[in-house]
Amino acid sequence: MLKFTVRRVLYSIIILFFVMFLVYALLYNMPGSYLETKAQQLASRPGASKSATEWLNDLKSQYGMDQGVVRGYFTWLRTAIRGEWGDSWRWTIPVTEEFSNTIWYSFALGVVTLLVEIFIAIPLGVVAAKKQYGFLDYFTTVFAMVSISLPTFFLATVLKYVFSVKLGWFDLSGMQGKYYDSLSPFMQFLDVAKHFVLPAITLSILSIGGLMRYTRTNMLEVLNSDYIRTARAKGVPEKKVINYHAFRNTLIPLVTMVGGSLPGLFSGALITETLFAIRGIGFASYESMVQADVPFTMFYLAFISILTLLGNLISDLLYGAVDPRVRLE
Question: Closest Cα partner for 242 from 234, 233, 231?
Fold first, then answer.
């Protein structure tokens, strides 16, 4: 196990090196950038002594963007290894500060969504497989297809119209109520949590369908296996057949999905965060990428890449725990 883990970590470091190089090369060659916009602003100020081109050259020299792709990347890599990520060009504060200001909102939203997805989608998928071609099976199938097909903006708009406009249970958008500052710390927490209810419901409904269908399909495949028929023929109680023999083997492919969901907890949900005015990492990263904010984008994508590689490693390690036939060494 240790040898396998060390080997995978070394492979992951090599993959991360080339992934970040590709990201840096794409940002470096973007046609429009923050530096060009900033140079235009500086050149258009009253009494400006330099042209836009001269300002652009000065800014590129200041931020190390005049060294070429390869040299520029290794310059960034040296500073990144030392933990020096620089200041965000878009947000004009240190990259890590902007990241910490936004990531926890997206993380809280992602954790709630994942928990709701797991505790609803997996049991419903198992029940639908047990009652194949029954009412519950057809109901969950229709619900799953609707969930997969719904656009985010449409579902969010419907929820806001019903629960905010008609019923008045929630605010239309934002993360705080108008009396937030006068509340006690605990009530402030509840106020923020209340503003996350509709975004969490939106993301949960959109994500339940896929996992539910995936669970149902795998459960049906396991239930039709020879060893399940043998267990039933030997008189093993149906509850034990489903919960012990069948469900454990259904978990094997589900481990891949759960392990792969780790980056999603921190990547944010751009459309949902924008519609509900949640200042999360999804919206912040989008704004940074649009304006070619190299320091923030490189830090964010490096973070997500590391989580992706870590999620894949966790999935492989969990295979050995779920399926005794898997021997990682």
Answer: 231
Task: Give dist(CA 133, CA 101) in Å, integer.
Answer: 49
User: Taking the CA of residue 304 as centre, how many other CA atoms within 13 Å lie in the half-sphere pointing to its CB?
Assistant: 22
Q: How many CB atoms lie within 10 A of CB 314?
A: 15
Instruction: Give helix 247-260 / helix 294-322 axis angle, nearest 10°.
Output: 170
Tokens of 122: 């997996």
**Alpha carbon 315 to chain centroid, angstroms:** 16
* Bridge partners (DSSP) listed for residue 87: 94
CB 224 within 8 A of CB 159: no
For the stretch 61-92, pLDDT in tens is 766 677 788 888 888 888 888 888 888 877 87
**Is the whole-model pTM more than 0.85?**
no
8 A C-beta contact, residue 125 and residue 243 = no
Contact 224, 241 (CB under 8 A): no
What CATH code is assigned to 95-322? 1.10.3720.10
Amino acid letter, 3: K
Neighbours of 51 (CB within 10 A): 12
Strands (E) in 178-315, as ranges, are none
CA distance 284 to 270: 9
Asked if 56 and 39 touch (Cβ cutoff 8 Å), the reply is yes
> How far apart are alpha carbons 111 and 99 in whole angstroms?
18
The whole-number pLDDT of residue 170 equals 85
